[in-house]
Every structure is written in C-alpha cells, then in structure tokens.
Design a protein that fits this description.
By secondary structure, the protein is of the alpha+beta class. Helices cover 43% and strands 14% of the residues. Helix 6 packs antiparallel against helix 7. The N terminus is likely disordered.
C-alpha cells in the first residue's frame, strides 16, 4: 500500500460498491464499518466523517457526534453492546476523591475519561470512546494501575468531568476498605454499577 493511494474499504450493505478513503495515518476505526452495517449511518456519511477526521485530527467519535451522524447515547449503547463493557450511569455514580486525584483534569477533559473508583491494582473509568487507546494509555500511565473501562454518553461525561474537577470540593477521606466500597449504593467492589 503506497502512501497517497486510495484504499478500498468494502462497505457492507452497499450492493458491492466500494468507498475509497485516502491512505493516511488514521484509518477509520473498525466500529465505523459496523455502524454502517447496522444502518446507523450510510457509507457516504462515513466518508464525510473520515475526511473530517483526517482534516481536523479530532478523535473519530467526536467527529461523528459533532456532525450529528449518531447520538451520544446511541454511540454509548453501541460500545456497550459491541465491546461488552458496562454502561456507567453518571447520574447515580459518584467518583471517589482518591480516583480523581490520580488523573489530572486536563487529561480527563482531553480524552473524556472520568476516574470512578480505585483499588490498589485497578482504576475504574468511564469513557465516551473505548477505542481511544491513546487516552486510555495516558490515564493508565498517570494512575500506575490497570484500567477497568465502562462507557458513558459523551455529553453527560463532559458535564461530570467538569463538575468533579472544577465545581466539587475534593476532600480526601481516609482510605476506604474494599468491603465499605462494595456497600456503596449502585457500585460493585470494582466501582462499576452492580
């Protein structure tokens, strides 16, 4: 594959037609083809999204949302189903101060990743885009822990990140035991919804 040549991408359901995307550093994520296959968007809409993604350098999911090709709740539901990860209800989950302290606010905002809970070996996070491996790796680096990932709608996630880092007063309580964390309403031992 030479740089600058169109790369054929078979679009299922398009009666054998091919959509061509210019070769470049960031091919469309595999889930984009699945969205076309499921009828969430057309091959033409995908082509527009890919072109905008390459032009702007913005994360692909953010482009889909900005162009209003999918809703944030539909995208979150898709990720939950496709990647078999839990959907985090940010209206009922309260991130722990210990988890929030591990990740700087600029990292959380840039990658739309909100730390929810922490154990000695794992940080539980909510993200709007589980395919954002660059963001997940940066969060993992800051936390010095493995990640357990859940998905949440983008708009609610941005609001929760802003609230947790800029409006709420962070008070670090004494370290909670795993048994005490497990008794928190709606949270399991790992900080995920139970």
């Amino acid at each position: 594959m030479e740089s600058g040549r169109p790369v054929p991408l078979r679009m299922p359901g398009t009666t054998g037609l091919y959509a061509s995307f210019p070769a470049g550093p960031a091919p469309p994520p595999e889930f984009a083809e699945l969205l076309v296959r499921r009828g969430a968007m057309t091959a033409g809409e995908l082509a527009v999204a890919v072109a905008e993604h390459r032009r702007s350098g913005v994360r692909f999911c953010a482009v889909l949302l900005r162009l209003e090709l999918v809703s944030d709740s539909d995208l979150a539901a898709y990720f939950r189903e496709e990647y078999r990860i839990p959907l985090i209800d940010l209206t009922t989950v309260e991130p722990t101060p210990e988890a929030l302290q591990l990740i700087p606010s600029d990292v959380a905002e840039r990658h739309e990743i909100l730390p929810i809970g922490v154990t000695p070996s794992t940080l539980t996070v909510a993200t709007s885009d589980p395919s954002n491996f660059e963001g997940r790796n940066e969060v993992k680096f800051h936390a010095a822990r493995d990640l357990t990932v859940g998905v949440a709608p983008s708009r609610l996630l941005r609001e929760a990140i802003h609230y947790c880092y800029h409006e709420r007063t962070l008070v670090i309580p004494r370290r909670k035991s795993a048994a005490r964390m497990a008794r928190r309403p709606g949270l399991g031992r790992d900080g995920l919804l139970s």
